[in-house]
Amino acid sequence: MMDANTQLTKNFKYSEFFCKGKQPPTQYEGNIKRVAEELQKLRDYYNKPIIVTSGWRTPEHNKEVGGATNSYHLRG
What we know:
single chain, 2 helices
């Protein structure tokens, strides 16, 4: 299990992808790392901060916000 403070890239920490303070299941760590790497490319290209407003979601939170039942948010 990855530590919440793990620096995934130069500008993104693992905890930025949490849902309401809950850590994603370990099976989604790879997905989250890949998303962070792609976001880092965008951040480097535009030289502007990117704020993650919704990364991984719990099924309950996904339902609350009206997310699709097969939303990628459920997989990190």
